[in-house]
Input
Amino acid sequence: MVEVVIYRNPWEDPEEVARVTIEGKVIGETPTAESLRDRIQDERDPIISEYTDGRELLRYIASSYSNGYVMANYDSEESLRVVEDLSDDEYRDWVQDSGLDTRL
Output
C-alpha cells in the first residue's frame, strides 16, 4: 500500500497519529486522523476541491504536516517513488496496473 504516516513528537518520542492511503482513506482514531477524515469528506474543503487524486493528496499531506510538532513521511521507499518520482504517464500506468481507485 502507498501511504503517508503522520507522527506526533517526531524528534523525541514519535507516536503514529494517522495514516493516509493513496486511495484517500485515513487510518487512525486520534484527533489528527479524525480532522483529516472530516476534511477529506467535506466537498467544500480546499483539500478536496484542489486535489482530485490520491497522489496529489499524499504530496499535500507530506509537505503540510512537517513541522516541529508533527512529521509526515512516506511509509516506504516504494511509496516515495510512486508519489514523487513517477512521471504522470508512469503514474497512470501504475494506477491501472495496481487496480487501485485513487480518485478522490
